[in-house]
Amino acid sequence: MSWTRQRLNNLFFIIGVLACVVMLFTFDVSFVELWQHLTKAGYWLVPIIGVWVLIYGINAASWWCVIKGVMSSHAEGSQEGALSPWRIFRLTISGYALNYATPVGGLGGEPYRIMELSRDIDKHQATSSVILYAMMHIFAHFWFWFSSIFLYLILAAFGDLPLNVPISLTLGFIALLFFGASYVFAKGYKNGVVLTVLGWLSKIPGLKGWSQRFKERHNDALHNVDTQIAALFSQDKKAFYSSLLLEYASRWAQSLEVLFMLLLFGVDNGGGIDGIMLTYLHSVLIVALTTFFANLIGFLPMQIGVQEGGFVLSIAALGLSAALGIFVSIICRVREIVWIFIGIMLMKLPEKQSRQ
Questions:
Q1: Considering the entire predicted model, what is its pTM?
Q2: Running along the chain, 356 residues long, what does each successive block of 10 average in pLDDT?
Q3: Which of 10, 120, 205, 251: disulfide with 354, CB 3.0–4.6 Å?
Q4: How far apart are CA 246 and CA 233, in angstroms?
C-alpha cells in the first residue's frame, strides 16, 4: 500500500513540475516584458507573495475545523492527536498547487489530500473531510460574491462607483447563482453529496455503466462518507460555521495582494487611512469579480486567459486602466507559479509518518 502511495505521490509531483514548466513558457508576454513587470514590482513582490502564507494558514485552519468535526462525530478509531498543524498546512499548500496545475481544479489536489491524510486518520474520514472542505471552499466563494454585491451598491450609493445596466445585470446574475447554489449546498450538507453526484453521472451518456458499477462495488463506503458529511452539519454546527467563516475571511485576506499592487501603481484614492481603506474595498471587489469570471470557466489549468480577462474587466469596471489590469494579472500569475513550485517541493519534504 505504501508503495502504491509513493508511486502516486511521484505522479502528482511530476504533473506539478511539468505544469510549472508549461506555464513559464505560455505567458502572454515575452520574457523581456515579464522581466520589466517584475522589475517594476520590485520589493513589493515580497508582501505580494508573502501574504499567501497568511491566506493558506487561514485555509488550513478552516480545513482543520472540518477534520475535527468529522472525527468528533465518529470518535472510534480517530487519531486527532496524530495530526499536526504543520502537516495540515503543508497538505493545504500542496493540494492547492496541484489544483492550480491540473485541468478542472480538484482532479489533482483533492485526491492527493485524501491519499496523504489517509496516512493519519481513517480513509473514510479523510475522504469526508476533503470533500467537505472542498464544498466549504466553493460555498465561501458564493458568499464572498454575494456580499460583494452589497459592497458595490454601498460604494455606488456614495458616488464612488458607477451603476449602469451591464453592472446591474452582472450583480443580479451573481445573486441568482448564490441562491441557486445555497439550495444545492444545503441539500448536500444535509443528505451527503457523493451518492447524489454519482446519480448525476449515471445520466451522462458513456458514464452510466461505470457509475453504477462503482456504486455497487463501494456502496457501503460511499454511504459511510455521505453519513459523515451530513453529520458535520447536523451534529457540529460550531465546526461547520467556523470553517465557513474562515474560508470567507481568506477571500478578504487575498484582497491584500491586489491592494499592494494598486498601491505600487500609486492608486491610493488620495492616500491616508481613508484613501487606503477605500482602495482596499476596491481590491475586494476586484478579487470578487475576477474569481467570479475565472470560476465560470474552471476547466483550464490556472484558468489561463480567463483570469487575465477577469482582472482587466473587473479593474476597468472600477474606472481604472486596462494596463493596470494586465500588470495585476501577470504578477498574480508569477505568484501562482512561485507557490505551485513551493507546494510541489513540499510534497517531497521528508516528514515523520503518523500511521502506516
A1: 0.83
A2: 56 62 56 65 86 97 91 59 83 89 64 87 85 88 95 92 87 93 82 69 64 68 73 79 95 94 82 89 90 67 54 67 74 86 84 50
A3: 120
A4: 16
